[in-house]
Amino acid sequence: MGISHYIKDIGRGKDGARALGRAQAADLMGQILDQQVSDLELGAFCIAMRIKGETPEEMAGFLDATHARLNKVHTDQTPTVVLPSYNGARKLPVLTPLLALLLAREGVAVVVHGAATEDKRVSSQAVLAHLGVNAANPVSPAAAGQVQFILTGVLNAGLDRLLAVRRVVGLRNPGHSLVKLMNPCDGPALVVSSYTHPEYLLSMSATFALTGQHALLLRGTEGEPVADARRTPAMDVFKNGQTVRVQDQREGSLVQVPELPTTDAAATATYTEHVLQGLLPVPEAIAQQVQHILREVKT
């Protein structure tokens, strides 16, 4: 059938484009994830959506299609936290692995998923490899107290192809929001998601509320789902369509800024080990985030 008729609706420019309904969006994304569209159609879709922007209804439809096609992690009612890690380290070290291991130490199953979308950034995958956590293939069931890292392509090859468009055209597309919103587990899990710009706070909040997912949303560190070690951001929890602010943003700078490593993967891994061993303190903002997450998954 193709997606050209959808592109006609969404590709008429910022003012002339029409939003898709949830079912239409699900059909469109389903064809993309099933890799039934050409490279040309895929590129046209990405550029059209970049100009138009996604509505919460469209994102909900994209999520419907994605959740129906993922190679899911079996949880068997194990308290599970999902950490999407796609941005990596640019100016600050990527501390998503530290967050994951702090949660695992508390008996939570942690699923980290990601893909290298930019060549110049240090990824959680690289840091976790230094810490002895290698990419899982095939996917293993979630296990209490353990961290599992899964490459996006293992969850769904079509989704990985969608993310890879960024390497060609240099712009984000709906796939980059999808991976931060989706639950790759076959049972209940808390998705810890982050945004980089204020407009994404509004759109992601609306999507979580519309889909009824269980999630914690914060302004992360350079797009990663971990609180900035230098300041405590606001954090919102979404569950069954309801939204609760569990953490207010703390104004001003810390009296004592924690000593952070360079962005190098090995240095970040060493820092992570030292924090876990108690040789260095857990940054206050991350400690707060851990407590909010534990309250959500253990109650």
Structure description:
By secondary structure, the chain is an alpha/beta fold. The protein has 2 domains: 4-67, Up-down Bundle (Transferase, Pyrimidine Nucleoside Phosphorylase, Chain A, domain 3); 80-297, Pyrimidine Nucleoside Phosphorylase, Chain A, domain 2 (3-Layer(aba) Sandwich), CATH 3.40.1030.10. It is built from 13 helices and 7 strands. The chain has helices spanning 4-10, 13-16, 22-33, 39-52, 56-67, 96-105, 124-130, 152-155, 157-169, 174-181, 198-211, 265-276, 284-297; strands at 80-84, 109-114, 147-151, 190-195, 215-219, 235-239, 242-247. Strands 3-2-1-4-5-6-7 form a 7-stranded mixed sheet, with helices on both faces. Helix 11 (198-211) links the parallel strand 4 (190-195) and strand 5. Helix 3 packs across helix 5 (56-67). The radius of gyration is 19 Å and the shape is globular. It starts with a helix and ends with a helix. The model has no long low-confidence stretch (mean pLDDT 93).
